[in-house]
Here is the input.
Amino acid sequence: MYQSMQKLFEQHTKELQDLLGNLGSFHEQVASAVAHLREAFSKGHTLYVAGNGGSASEAQHLAEEFIGRYRTDRKPYPAISLTADSNAITCIANDFGFNAIFSRQLEALGREGDVFVALSTSGNSENILKAVDAARANGMTIIALTGTTGKLKDLADVAIECPSGTHNGKAVTERMQELHLHAIHMICEAFEETPRIPV
Here is the structure.
């Protein structure tokens, strides 16, 4: 079994290694996101996060790491995933359409000074773009976890642009998702009281 899958595994690993070896600007973007979050949290503001599909899972992961724990016990930070409330999502989708599932929640909950982290590998998810408009109207800071193309990166205050590499001429979405998780964990690490800094 392993012999038959070995080339597939090696290709996957090589694609990821190639991307991980060239992340200078990516790291600068993550650092900028951390600075915005630090300022917002210090003033009592809330983080809201949203995405679709795999990005929805990563949105929930980021929120729960801030509310629960990442690596060590430290104070919780106010973070809400807009993907987690199935009652709100289905109600809004039924009454206003799927493209309103996040924006409607931000219209209700978002306040000036809050932060919206928007996840979209394509950068063109309509419900995310509509949520960005709602966040902007409420005076929120917008951080995008996205790729190097699409509309989202140009609408954000901070865009964490995850390169994807290509396979048969097409962007590799799963590599972007892996780098999104890398960024999420680096952000969480920055909020540890004793980050693992090598000596």
Observations:
- Helices lie at 2-20, 24-42, 54-67, 86-96, 103-109, 126-137, 152-155, 173-190.
- The domain at 26-190 is CATH 3.40.50.10490 (Rossmann fold).
